[in-house]
Amino acid sequence: MSRFYCPQPLEPGSEIELPTTVAHHLHVLRLAPGAPLRLFNGSGGEVQAELSSIEKRRATARIQTWIGREAELPYALTLAQALPEGSKMDWIIEKAVELGVAGVQPLAAARSVVRLDAERAARRQQHWEGVIIAAAEQCGRNRLAHLAPLSKLQDWLALPHLHKRVLLSPRAEQSLAAWARHQPPQALSLLVGPEGGFSDAEEAAALAAGAIALSMGPRVLRTETAGLAALAMLNAHWSPA
Fold it and tell me: Are 46 and 38 a contacting pair, CB within 8 Å?
């Protein structure tokens, strides 16, 4: 069944106009009035709906019943990812949402190849929000991961944090897996460097700010692999069976 994000009240018994992007998608899918839909607005739960009318750029749906289904992790994981090159960030965000992250924090680091001015950063922010929505629609989540504005690493480290920050570093003496086995499920921020990793000065700054340095094992993982592997590892150790 098709699932779509609709950022508006979804009251059972009401008829709503669907967002233009959703209407276009339904038109491409060639769905006809009467087709069943699942809709969610990011505040939790979802609704069963029925497509009422459809045109090329406009569609309406009647909300039928509310379903209190959730697919969230019982602990909040944030991926603090230094900007990688090319379109890797799209892929990282998409897969991180599938793996259950509560938030994504893009970071500008010393070795980041991509440099974004304010205008380009705003455009990327809007694009990445679309990636989060599409991933949530696909994977069955009813809440959207929070996307923080692009920040310099030093500025992010200076912010007060209420939970642990983990610096993924191949130079760390303890592995994330060994650490997680002896820790209760908890909120974490996973700090991942760009291609080439964080500089020595950046790692020292992260540790001075209270981050815990942990490795992903004996192999050095690419920037687009490390954070996702860490998320999957924590899910395996901490998620209820």
Answer: yes
Q: Which helix (H) or strand (E) holds 235?
A: helix 223-238
Q: What is the pLDDT of residues 83-98, one digit of tens each?
A: 999 899 999 999 999 9
**What are the two backbone dihedrals, phi and then psi, of residue 21, each rounded to the nearest 5 degrees?**
-65, -40
Inform me whether the pLDDT recorded for 241 exceeds 70: no
Span 2-67 CATH architecture: Beta Barrel (2.40)
Q: Are 224 and 92 in contact (CB under 8 A)?
A: yes
Q: Measured between alpha carbons, how far is residue 50 from residues 6, 8, 170, 187 in Å? A: 14, 16, 51, 38
Domain ranges of the chain: 2-67, 77-238
pTM of the model: 0.94
CA atoms within 13 A on the CB side of 93: 29
Q: Which fold has domain 77-238?
A: Alpha/beta knot (3.40.1280)
* Closest residue by Cα to residue 2 from 79, 43, 76, 54: 54
Q: Within 13 Å and on the Cβ side, how many CA atoms surround 156? A: 25
Distances (CA, A) of 22 to 6, 27, 32, 53, 165: 8, 9, 14, 13, 37
Confidence class of residue 4 from pLDDT cuts 50, 70 and 90?
very high
Spell 101-124 as b/e; 16+ CB within 10 A means b: bbbbbbbbbbebebebeeeebeeb
For residues 111 and 191, the model is more confident at: 191
